[in-house]
């Protein structure tokens, strides 16, 4: 068994528009790593990693955070369309004014004492997940003159194999900052970029309470090409 | 079509650090050791906003995972997780507390030398990069097919060197002594 590569989808390691890549990408060609036992397995991290309110970022403090409550939900699938069950999702994000709860983030937007911006959950047996949180704000960064990041939520996923590990960002529909953001536009293919944008989901909104956005995440699929000689010949 | 990768950004410590992240095996388990290293960029400067993740077999060369073609095996050490996660500090230093993995079969059924798969994430990296830790004092390195596929000039970058409390494995993202990285 191996996991299918998806060369056309991911951004290059060296991308001129995103300046910080310049000194942080290998210049030597990458060497092909065959998918053997270490690569087709991976950490299966379960309930033990979850705190009671990790899935609801609006209830982790004494009072409610400021901002617009949203439900973010979707499915984790592999590229063969199979759900990825019981896999850990980790998210982190800025608050409603676009500021992170982090010592290095010091742009003059208010911090919210009732919002940390950290969430975790597991997918269910059908690959479904769900968070309640606050819609993050856009924020400026120093990449170029008048640079602003579109609102986004960072997602981290393990899948079930080392090869399926993915860190990505979820964006919101119709953000006017998309054309100007080098991180979003580092993904070369338009259709692939669309896969990072969540969908407004009226059906899942909660009346008088929260908006809802649906975001499906697709990890690498499996190819059933068996090892040349399965296991060793003991 | 898969979902594209994006950078972890500078604030990954909010979402990707755990109090027990560094412990591939429980703290203080006898026989364990530290693998420590420094993550540096093309200027040789520390990367203070990086994250190292490791994945490995247990000392008997097994994984507690159903997709191991030999079947899932309970770890030979209580509480062994196989997985380590360490953010880099202001000096780019990281570390995981672990055990030397046993030998596991490669794609041709040959036994590989003990190795640990490594993912490197950081602000400024749109995708993780992947490398492998081998152990400099391990005789089976001589016959390892993956090591043999690495250009000889770069092979030494994959060898963790014995140190005071375990091994040292520096990772250079670019330039002189650039670590050998793999395509998965």
Task: Put the structure in a nutshell.
Chain A is mainly beta and 234 residues long.
Keywords:
heterodimer, A: 234 residues, mainly beta, Protocatechuate 3,4-Dioxygenase, subunit A, five-stranded mixed beta sheet, four-stranded antiparallel beta sheet, 3 helices, 14 strands, 6% helix, globular, disordered C terminus, B: 184 residues, nine-stranded mixed beta sheet, 7% helix, dioxygenase (chain A), Intradiol_dOase_C (chain A), Intradiol_RC_Dioxygenase (chain A)
Description:
The complex is a heterodimer of chains A (234) and B (184). Chain A is 6% helix and 26% strand. The longest helix of chain A has 5 residues, at 190-194. Chain A has helices at residues 37-40, 182-185, 190-194; strands at residues 2-3, 31-32, 69-78, 88-93, 118-122, 128-134, 139-141, 147-149, 152-157, 166-171, 199-200, 211-214, 217-219, 222-223. Chain A is built from three helices and 14 strands. In chain A, the strands form four sheets. In chain A, strands 3, 6, 11, 12 and 13 form a five-stranded mixed beta sheet that branches. Chain A has a four-stranded antiparallel beta sheet with strand order 5-4-9-10, with no helix packed on it. Chain A has one domain (19-218): Protocatechuate 3,4-Dioxygenase, subunit A (Sandwich), CATH 2.60.130.10. Chain B has 184 residues and is mainly beta. In chain B, strands 1, 2, 3, 4, 5, 6, 7, 8 and 9 form a nine-stranded mixed beta sheet that branches. The radius of gyration of chain B is 16 Å and the shape is globular. At the A-B interface, strand 2, helix 1, strand 4, strand 10 and helix 3 of A face helix 1, strand 5, strand 6 and strand 10 of B.
